[in-house]
């Protein structure tokens, strides 16, 4: 099957072909005709399936081939926003908008992306001129709505991308505020890695007789990924990682840590061992973050150390190695983490360094993925059988405390009554937790594991440029 046979215009097929893709992925084969048909869509797909192209391609087709699209003389003439794409994080927003530009370059449509962590004035200027397709994170979009700098009255298509993660991160209130500002007559597309009860409830209230597509079973891990556990004492993790990288000559390794401080510390330790590494997390500047992603993608950086939320949307062809330096305290994040490798039929390896403190986390992960992961003790790094587990400092609210500041080290962003604090972030609920039922005290986010793919190698995924997303929270606002 070709992209042309799906009914896409010659201009879009030309751009897709130039990007090096000829065959649509399974979700693209199903989603593209459904979107072109004009009805609502509920689509479930795991990481690496090509879901972003599954909605960007038909949306570009619809907007560029109707009367309004054909009437455009060029891509710079003023116009109203006709399609709105909401994503949970800056990195994913930047990559989705990049896909829109890549695949729409031979149309007269234009697009822009807005997210927190960067100045709002350039975004205001762009929005004032007008764009056809707006990609946004919920918090920054609400900032613009509050200031009257974005007009959503003529939205024809709404896309909620990674809807499950937006709910997990406490964005349900933001989403509902956005929905209230949209025209009632529109096409709605909801994409989610899982169909939880919360997602089903959101879909029931949003979608009208939707087509339903699901191309991966719930919480499945990529079958081709070789998963392995290396038992090790907590103070031997860094030496073991250095040993594995050198002994196996790993040249491109994505390493996950639980905290920003842990990421910075590990980068310093690896550097002292002669291993080039950089960290990416919420406290990094935009320039540092962009540089790290760019160098890691082009292979000049050997190790990228990331927290869950910072790694959201990292999309790299044939990434061979993912290492869980720390296990995630949310089991689903393990699935998202290891989904960064083993793309498009390529082999991948996911290694987890597990100390006695993390045995309960490991049990939760194995229960979720319904398999027992193989253990391999490395000679010279045998764990002490008499070691006692210690509480894991997930957040600064106390050892193992899940209701304090979030596990990436940020201070609470809500006063517990669903109000936004001066420090930015989003209110997650009414004192007792957000509507996704995950966090208390209104904190967000819990962290996310990077299931933000645009495609695998069998379908479009963009031009491979590093995300332009920012890393720092904007003081006094909803910088997300």
From TrEMBL:
It catalyses: ATP + H2O = ADP + phosphate + H(+). Its main location: cytoplasm. Residues 402-420, 436-446 have a biased composition (Low complexity). A motif (Q motif) lies at residues 1-29. InterPro entries: DEAD/DEAH_box_helicase_dom, DEAD/DEAH_RhlB, DEAD_box_RNA_helicase, DEAD_helicase_RhlE, Helicase_ATP-bd, Helicase_C-like, P-loop_NTPase, RNA-helicase_DEAD-box_CS. Residues 380-480 are annotated as: Disordered. Pfam families: DEAD, Helicase_C. Transmembrane segments: none annotated. GO terms for molecular function: helicase activity. Its EC number is 3.6.4.13. It is found in: Cytoplasm. Residues 1-29 form the DEAD-box RNA helicase Q domain. HAMAP family: DEAD_helicase_RhlE. DEAD-box RNA helicase involved in ribosome assembly. Has RNA-dependent ATPase activity and unwinds double-stranded RNA. Belongs to the DEAD box helicase family. RhlE subfamily. This is ATP-dependent RNA helicase RhlE. The lineage of its organism: Bacteria, Pseudomonadati, Pseudomonadota, Betaproteobacteria, Burkholderiales.
């Amino acid at each position: 099957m070709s992209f042309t046979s799906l009914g896409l215009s010659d201009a879009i097929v030309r751009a897709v072909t130039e990007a090096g893709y000829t065959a649509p992925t399974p979700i693209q084969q199903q989603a593209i005709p459904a979107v072109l048909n004009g009805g609502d869509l509920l689509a479930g797909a795991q990481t690496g399936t090509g879901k972003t192209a599954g909605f960007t391609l038909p949306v570009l087709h619809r907007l560029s081939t109707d009367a309004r699209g054909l009437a455009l003389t060029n891509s710079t003439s003023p116009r109203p926003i006709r399609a709105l794409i909401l994503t949970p994080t800056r990195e994913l927003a930047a990559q989705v908008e990049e896909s829109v530009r890549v695949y729409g370059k031979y149309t007269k449509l234009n697009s822009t992306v807005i997210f927190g962590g960067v100045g709002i004035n350039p975004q205001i200027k762009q929005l004032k001129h007008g764009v056809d397709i707006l990609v946004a994170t919920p918090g920054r979009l609400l900032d613009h709505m509050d200031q009257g700098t974005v007009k959503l009255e003529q939205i024809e298509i709404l896309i909620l991308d990674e809807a499950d993660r937006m709910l997990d991160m406490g964005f349900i209130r933001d989403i509902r505020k956005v929905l209230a500002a949209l025209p009632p007559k529109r096409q709605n597309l909801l994409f989610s890695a899982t169909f939880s009860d919360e997602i089903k409830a959101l879909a029931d209230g949003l979608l009208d007789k939707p087509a339903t597509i699901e191309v991966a079973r719930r919480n499945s891990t990529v079958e081709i990924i070789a998963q392995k556990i290396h038992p090790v004492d907590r103070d031997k993790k860094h030496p073991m990682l250095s040993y594995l990288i050198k002994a196996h000559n790993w040249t491109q390794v994505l390493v996950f840590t639980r905290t920003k401080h842990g990421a910075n510390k590990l980068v310093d330790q690896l550097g002292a061992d002669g291993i080039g590494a950089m960290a990416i997390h919420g406290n990094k500047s935009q320039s540092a973050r962009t540089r790290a992603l760019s160098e890691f993608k082009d292979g000049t950086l050997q190790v990228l150390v990331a927290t869950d939320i910072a790694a959201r949307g990292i999309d790299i062809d044939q990434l061979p190695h993912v290492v869980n330096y720390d296990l995630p305290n949310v089991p689903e994040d393990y699935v998202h983490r290891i989904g960064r490798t083993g793309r498009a039929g390529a082999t991948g390896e996911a290694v987890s360094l597990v100390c006695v403190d993390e045995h309960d986390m490991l049990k939760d992960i194995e229960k979720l993925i319904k398999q027992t992961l193989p253990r391999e003790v490395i000679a010279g790094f045998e764990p002490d059988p008499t070691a006692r587990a210690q509480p894991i400092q997930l957040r600064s609210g106390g050892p193992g405390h899940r209701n304090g500041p979030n596990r990436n080290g940020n201070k609470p962003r809500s006063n517990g009554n669903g109000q936004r604090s001066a420090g930015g972030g989003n209110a997650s609920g009414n004192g007792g937790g957000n509507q996704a039922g995950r966090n208390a005290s209104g904190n967000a986010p819990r962290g996310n594991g990077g299931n933000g793919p645009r495609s695998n190698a069998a379908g479009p995924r963009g031009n491979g440029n590093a995300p332009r997303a920012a890393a720092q929270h904007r003081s006094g606002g909803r910088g997300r």
